[in-house]
Known about the structure:
This protein is 44% helix and 11% strand. Helix 2 runs antiparallel to helix 3 (38-60). By secondary structure, it is an alpha/beta fold.
Amino acid sequence: MPGLAADPDAVSLVRRVSRALNRRLSDLVTLLFRHKSAGSLGAVAGFAIAVVFAWKFLRSSPSRPRRPRPEPKRPPAGPAAPDSAAPDAVEPVGDSGKLTTRQIVVKRLSGCRKVTCQLLGAVFEEKTPEELQKQATVRPSMVELLLEISKYCDLYLMETVLDDKSEENALMALESAGLFNTRGLMKEKVLFCSSEVGRTSFVRQLESDFHIDTSLDIISQLSRFIRCQLFVSSVEGGQLAANVFNSPSFEQFFS
């Protein structure tokens, strides 16, 4: 019996009862063979009944309950460990808490993976197609920013030009600034067109996530199709759509 085996007191009791019953049974059997009388047979029968009831009583008696083993104490739970940062998570670096250019780019683009950007007024010092016919000058503060954007996402530059000379000036200025030295931005990703309608078509065909432009008309036309836009202008755009940002310069928005 598993319950009794686990209890030393119960085991000892059973052993004593068994020895007593054996002695008693031996005496009665000897008496039976010596005196084959009705009284002896009745005594044996009564003893057998007593043995059966005693055995049933011992079987049905509850064993002493086991004491539950104390569970090992666990150290108090400390603060939960923070989840692993997502690939696009932005964390301050350095004691000053400033963000790197890449971290700012990631934060501002908010997961956008394809960016289209106008050149005049945003990347170049020049602001009109007529100025681009003469020369093109990349704003010094734009070089590092464009390189980081081209590493993080698929970047396309575009502009409305009046002639082939304007295209040559634009490409030469971008190359001289070192923007084609990495695989992020290539000459094939610099697009030219002859009208603002063409520039709008470029953005839609490329299915851009984020577009940067100085033309309010283009920004307004694309607001229904582009996830986010940046309107580069020192003059506020008035009632802009909710997905359109406004900044006096490209650099200031990413600063």
